[in-house]
Amino acid sequence: MNNPRTLLWRPAIALWHRDVVRFLRQRNRIISALLTPFVFWILLGAGFTPSFRPQGTEEVSYLAYFFPGTLVLIMLFTAIFSTISVIEDRREGFLQGVLVAPVSPAAIVLGKFLGGTTLAAGQALLFCALAPLAGIPLRPDLLPLLLLAFVLVGFSMTGLGFLVAWPMDSTQGFHAIMNIVLMPLWMVSGALFPLPSGNSIMAWLGALNPVTYGVALIRNALDIAPLPGAPSTTLCLVVTVFFCAATCLASSILVAKRRKAS
Length: 262
Known about the structure:
Helix content is 74%, strand content 0%. It has ten helices and no strands. It starts with a helix and ends with a helix.
């Protein structure tokens, strides 16, 4: 009789290893996932720094303010490139073979999530080498929190991408949905500009947006002066962990349904 380790961890590690190796062999994916956010960061930072003066953080430049948002954007792009492999694997027949194999549906989800999280967190950590250019010193005592933030945000971004990719058969449709759903989530998270306070529509959208708490968590881990009314580190951790669990559970349900159908 198969034990839980055989049904869950071994296939999950195999899928994780496959996604990481595939990504590393496609250099264009590495370049695009890092270069596009870097260009955004440089161009927007150079353009908005002279006029960026949010109340309460007048000493923070736009390069420093936008740095956490750029890290989340890197993880978002990595999640898109990682989870699009779900559609490619279905088209090539690999996914059907995995679905009929005697493994737990959660192993498929866990393997894909771990692969995307590893790539997203790794690239975000690599981009942190540019933090001194924005005047952000990396504090050793906050590095564990920063690494935890990368893992949680990378996991949640991969989860969102997986939920979109799993029911789809077209890569073109996947990119369209990602642009409609994930990019607005990122833009209304405080990554690009400070969210207003009070009872405005933008304030409510930001408060209900789970990506907001991921951006704030990274900002707190980098010890960047928080904006007035920004969520605390504890609240950011609670919301992000809950969001990770929700995406993982929803993905497992979708995989189990397709497995029954096949």
